Amino acid sequence: MTTTAVNQLMEQGQAAQAAARKLARLSTRIKNQALQNIAKYLETEQSQVLSANAQDYRAAQAGGMEPAMLDRLLLNPEQLAVMAKDVRSIAALPDPVGEALEMTTLPNGLRTGKVRVPLGVIGSIYESRPNVTVDIAALCLKSGNACLLRGGKESLRSNLALAQLIRRAIAEAGVPVDAVQFVDNPDRSLVETMLGMKEYINLLIPRGGAGLIKFVAENAAMPVVTGGVGVCHTFVDRTADLNMAANIVFNAKVQRPTVCNALDTVLIHSQAAPEGLPGIAERLLKAGVELHCDHRSLSILGPKVGPKVVPATEEDWGKEFLALIAAVKVVDSLDEALQHIDTYGSGHSEAIVTEDYSAAMRFLNEVDAAAVYVNASTRFTDGSQFGLGAEVGISTQKFHARGPMGLRELTSYKWIVMGSGQVRE
Questions:
Q1: H or E segment to which residue 394 belongs
Q2: Does domain 232-380 have CATH number 3.30.750.24?
Q3: What is the pLDDT of residues 219-273, one digit of tens each?
Q4: Which CATH number is 3-225+405-418 given?
Q5: Which residues lie below 8 Å from residue 369, measured CB to CB, with a gap of 6+?
Q6: Whose CA, among 103, 108, 171, 372, lies 20 to 30 Å from 296?
Q7: What DSSP string describes 228-289?
């Protein structure tokens, strides 16, 4: 790492802070116009982005990148159109900046309350997924925050093309161009420099594998929101509609297996397993899913189900597979299912399929996760699906923000106090 590279990163941090102060005062109209410009360019000027992404993809493929990561890296016209739609959805959402909260009048006549304000500069360190560049930039712009983005070297060309597009789009709307900063130097040692920039970065959000998230959380000098590692369970209760259960499990595992809200473990009640498990397994196996089964589920499925059914090991419980692999376990009660999730879950997304209201309520109340579902797929844990437009990340923490982080999660508040001459006695 050269002194020049460090100085350049520091200058970007300084510029982001200066831009954040201006951005915090901009009108909703100007911010929305910037977002509309980004969406338009994502649709009309795709060639440079797609060309850059093709170069990244070929290099990553030649370098032996795993299929799950390659899936996250790839962009195509349809995905860019979806990204543009999400940006327009963010533009259509209410502006959180300036929203008044909890206004009240005290006995002494003082009127007090809170007003939402931006956090300042949001830093993000992320891997593979170039759509993150657009999601974070758009949410930060609407919430009045500048951003300093550092993507992985495997998506450097894609991210740089997207960042250039975004900066041109926002400048045309009157937003300070330095409100969106992208670190284009792939030197890994700059990550450590970035983690120490607490005077310029107000909140850091890592997105990527468990190793990256752990490293950032342990070494950052500024507050960090961590998450993204999802060990997700679906519990098929004894009263479950078994056709519904099969549909939910199939969707949660197969629809996009390489993402953090995809299913990893199926828990099924022993009273539902003899009838329900064969149907669930048949659909998963036809889709190419490999099942890692405990001895009870193996005995139900029998010895002739094929080579993709194997005995589970202890390492399968609590594992985020990010592939067409699922663990399967038969349990005897809701209590046992809850205990398993408490032991092996990551606090991301958990689901129960049941027709028993009391079981559903117990599951909602007792499962400690960012998103808890009754009779629905965990694949819905997503900022866009939750009506947030997009997300800067999915927090599995309990402080400040939890679950998909949208506009409001990128704000703080300040107290405002209005008087008529009151003094404290």
A1: strand 394-395
A2: no
A3: 999 999 987 678 999 999 999 999 999 999 999 999 999 889 999 999 999 999 9
A4: 3.40.605.10
A5: 341, 345, 347, 348, 349, 350, 396
A6: 372
A7: ----EEEEE-TT--HHHHHHHHHHHHHS-TTSTTSEEEEEEETTTHHHHHHHHHHHHHHTT-
